[in-house]
Amino acid sequence: MAIKLQTLLNHAKENMGSGMNPVVNETILEVVKLAYEAGIFVQITAGYRSFREQHELYERSRTNKSKPIVTYARGGAILA
User: Fold this and answer.
1) 27 falls in which pLDDT band (50, 70, 90)?
2) CA distances (Å), 49 to each of 3, 19, 36, in order?
3) Cα–Cα distance for residue pair 73/5, rounded to 1 Å
4) Is the dihedral of CA 60, 11, 14, 77 positive or negative?
5) How deeply is 58 buried, as exposed, middle or buried, from its count of CB atoms within 10 A (0-12, 13-18, 19+)?
6) Which residues are CB-contacts of 73 (< 8 A; sequence separation ≥ 6)?
7) 1, 32, 51, 71, 73 from 42: Cα distances, Å
8) Looking only at Cα atoms, what is the longest distance across the chain?
9) CA–CA dist 3, 15 (Å, integer)
10) For 34-74, how does the pLDDT look when each residue is reduced to its tens digit (9 = 90+)?
11) Closest CA to 17 of 51, 49, 52, 56
12) Other C-beta atoms within 10 Å of 8: how many?
């Protein structure tokens, strides 16, 4: 069963969050539409990530070696 375009767009809007630049937000929605028209189902699982969230993801696998590395990018600000 194919997923409906509106479902993909609704999920993208929910998952991108409120911190996204409006131009980026609209561009992502356009990419989802174009991909859908080409038979590709794109699901956005995350959007804006704060510096703190990025830092926590970066540190997660470096402080607990049993967890896989999920990102090589550090947070964009020095966090105390």
Assistant:
1) very high
2) 27, 8, 25
3) 32
4) positive
5) middle
6) 54, 58
7) 15, 6, 25, 21, 23
8) 48
9) 17
10) 999 999 999 888 878 888 888 888 898 788 888 888 888 88
11) 49
12) 19
* Closest by CA position to 54, among listed 40, 42, 68, 70: 70
Please give the distance of CA 50 from its chain centroid, rounded to a whole number.
12
Which amino acid is present at 72?
A: Y
Phi/psi class of residue 29: alpha, beta or left (left: φ > 0; alpha: ψ in -120 to 50)?
A: alpha
Cα distance between residue 46 and residue 7, in whole Å? 16
Token pair belonging to 24: 């980026």
Could you give the CA distance from residue 65 to residue 9 in angstroms, rounded to a whole number?
Answer: 36
pTM, whole model, 2 decimals? 0.65
Residue 19 · residue 50 · CB < 8 Å: yes
pLDDT number for residue 1: 56
